[in-house]
Each structure stands twice: as structure tokens, then as C-alpha cells.
Amino acid sequence: MSTRALIVDPSAPDGIGLGEVADPVAGPGQVLIDVLHASLNYADLNNARNGRVPAGAPLGLDAAGVVVQGAAEGSGPAAGTRVVLFADGAFAERVAVDVSAVAEVPDGVGLAEAAALPTAGLAALRSLRTAAVAPGKRVLVTGASGGVGRYAVQLAARAGAHVIASVGSPARGEGLADAGADEVVVGLDDVKEPVDIVVETVGGPHLVTAWALLAPGGSLQSVGWASGEPAVFPPYATVGPPKTLVSYVNEFAAAADLAELVRLVADGALVPEIGWRGSWERFAEAADALRGRRVTGKAVFDLESHA
Ligand SMILES: NC(=O)c1ccc[n+]([C@@H]2O[C@H](COP(=O)([O-])OP(=O)(O)OC[C@H]3O[C@@H](n4cnc5c(N)ncnc54)[C@H](OP(=O)(O)O)[C@@H]3O)[C@@H](O)[C@H]2O)c1
């Protein structure tokens, strides 16, 4: 038996194609999940080419669906539970996932919305937590139009921070004031006052400028590098009163934080914005839109097989 999946296919455009993988078997501490929706991340596009996921293996990190078999020892969600997951190989009709990477989705939260949460939501939630976001802090979010950015704006605003959302054009900034941004700026030239925290997702010159804007004692969370451009710091840019550049990566044991994210959505305190949605058979279109900076928030796939 086999399961359909979006796999690494070196012969395909983007290195991604629909294919078949062996049916997953749940190991100790794992649940089997039928995936109904999944969301696309830059990491998936990179993983199709960088060797992290081998040829023929399924891509993907973010998905939501229904448990079809609970963990053998009874831990984690039981069969029939609606769940969100953050795990390698998420782009498959059926996946075996550690219970530590799964959270139940409350009634009232759609599975498509839940699938839009993991990678980007975890990065926003955890980077702001590490930076000790608090009322009155000035928080700069770069790439605020994107997946991580739109969550970071909402979560920082909810924490009582003064939020400055930086985007590439006025059109890309639409909706961010409603999402909680106190200021929406195009680029960084109009940010005149120092900031305490940066959630930095663009890299390159944005990283250099954001570092210069960071106040003494501040924390720059280097979450991503969507621009792919090099960062060239002028001499002595890193010399002065102490402030911190913190590298960030999502760790997989995410159950508690996934549960927090879906609870925030259930409470109406966090809104997953889905800027592209369609069948996973249209993955090339979604990848093109993500690369072309045409996705507002997240791109979400529907897997018709279990619908
Ligand atoms: N470390 C981790 O664990 C982790 C977790 C999640 C994401 N990430 C990384 O964080 C970055 C952002 O992820 P995301 O999901 O928020 O991506 P996204 O939805 O595509 O958002 C990225 C934003 O960056 C802005 N941008 C500015 N210059 C760009 C350029 N030259 N090319 C492309 N985008 C540019 C775009 O905003 P404008 O169009 O408004 O300019 C875009 O909306 C990616 O590098 C991703 O790999 C890392």
C-alpha cells in the first residue's frame, strides 16, 4: 500500500512533485493522522533542493487532520481527534507523528486555519517570548506582510507592545493596522526611534538596518532570510553598548506551543490569514506566489482524498 505525498523530485520544476510513499507505520509514542490541509513554507522550497530531505521523501512541516490511530501506549490524542502537527514529511495523505509534535484543535477552529499555524506561528510566538516581549516595548517586525510577520504583529500587539510593521509596499501592508500594528512602514527609512525587539525575517540590508535601530539592551531575533541577500555591516556596527542578535530555529517538540496557538485562535486573539488556498495539486502555483511575494500571510493546501 502507498500514500500520496508531495515529494522531493529532482527532475521536477522546483524539485517538488506529487508521488507515492510507503504507508506510514506508527512507532512508539506516535499517532497516525489523515491529513486534510497543509501549509507551505520557505523551508519546504529550500528543503526540495538542499539535500535535507532526500529524493523520494515527503516534504512539508505544517499540517492538520484527524487521528486515525492513537499511540499504542495511550498517550496523546485518541482516534477521531482533530489535530494540528509540526513534523517533517507533513505533505502526505497519512503521516505517523510523535505525540510531542501534535495538539488537539478546539471546536470552532477550522483545520485549514490550524494548518496555517505551525512553522510561522511557532517562530513568532517563541521569538517574541525569548525576547521577553512586554507592555510598552517597541517591537519592529520586518517582512510583516508574510507568514511569520502577520503572526508576530498580532502576538506583540496582544502583549501590549508598540508594534512597527515593516513591509515592501503599501499594498503589502493592508490589514496590518487592523491586526494590531501601531505603525505600518514601507522599508525601514521611516523608523526614527530605537526599538527594543526586532523579529527579523528578511535578512540582508534589513538585518543591518534593524541592528542599527536596536536600542542598548535590545534583542534582535534573526528568524529568517527571505531576501536571500548578504548582510554587510559597516565597520564598528557591532561595537557599543550591549545588545543581542539571537539566532532562531523551530524545535520539533511543539505540542504545548501548538496548543497555545490554536487556543489563541479559538479565543479570537489570533487570526491566521490565508492569502492563497487551493488543492495540493496546485503546489507549483503556491510556490510561485510565495516566492513572488504575492501571498498575504499563509498559503494553505487542501488534500481532497479525505474530504
Ligand atoms: N528559523 C525558523 O525556524 C523559521 C521559521 C519560520 C520561517 N523562517 C524563515 O523566515 C523567513 C520568512 O518566512 P515567512 O514564512 O514569513 O515568509 P513569507 O510569508 O514569504 O514572508 C516573507 C516576507 O519577506 C519580505 N521580503 C522582503 N524582501 C524580500 C525578498 N527579496 N524576497 C522575498 N521576500 C522578501 C516579503 O514582504 P514584502 O513583500 O512586504 O516585502 C515577504 O512577505 C523565511 O526566510 C523563512 O525561511 C524561519
UniProtKB/TrEMBL annotation:
* Record GO terms (molecular function): oxidoreductase activity
The entry's protein name is NADPH:quinone reductase-like Zn-dependent oxidoreductase
Taxonomic source organism: Thermomonospora cellulosilytica
Record-linked InterPro entries? ADH-like_C, ADH-like_N, ER, GroES-like_sf, NAD(P)-bd_dom_sf, Zn-ADH-like_protein
Give the Enoyl reductase (ER) domain ranges. 11-301
Q: Which Gene3D superfamilies match?
A: Medium-chain alcohol dehydrogenases, catalytic domain, NAD(P)-binding Rossmann-like Domain
| Alphabetized Pfam families for the sequence | ADH_N, ADH_zinc_N
